[in-house]
Specification:
The chain has helices at 2-11, 18-29, 38-47, 52-76, 78-88, 95-105, 107-115, 120-129, 134-159, 162-192. The protein is an all-alpha fold and 193 residues long. It has one domain (2-192). Helix 3 packs antiparallel against helix 4 (52-76) and helix 6 (95-105) packs across helix 7. The longest helix has 31 residues, at 162-192.
Length: 193
Amino acid sequence: MLRRLYDWILHWAATPYGIWALFILAFCESSFFPIPPDPLLIALAISLPTKSFRFAFVCSIASVIGGMFGYFIGYELMDSIGRPILEFYNAMDRYEDIQTLYRNYDAWAVGIAGFTPIPYKVFTIAAGAFKIDLSVFILASAVSRSARFFIVAGLIYKFGEPIRSFIDRYFNVLSIAFIILLILGFVILKGVF
């Protein structure tokens, strides 16, 4: 079933509605939907490499808005909608761990979840449920989600089709490298200020 859903999402790249499908997918994935927007972003960027950064921008904006919707779900509708979504992703048993992450690391937890394959929707809903500062949440989401999507777009713009298999094969390693760079950036900023 998931494979059919994945193939259905990819088919949108070959239609004139691809950019709208990307927006809707990125929005939904940030708050409840299981399929990430990356495959459609990659397919669109490969089909029109000169518009790669436009696709990444659309994906980033939609993802942050979708994350804010996930935040709202956790903030206002945790019992009626948030809990069933978290149960669907088997995240309720990790709920207390996520709360500890937010308590100890605040924006870091959002940033890491926004960039890595960790289900971002779990963190958006939890951020609302735990009443994380909304401005910190939005900033961390914007930075991490944009970094994720613009890196993909930039690689496709520069290298084209061969980069697709490279991204698929080494996505986890690339995510870890980005997290290390993100942490180093925060350490440097903290030392400067």
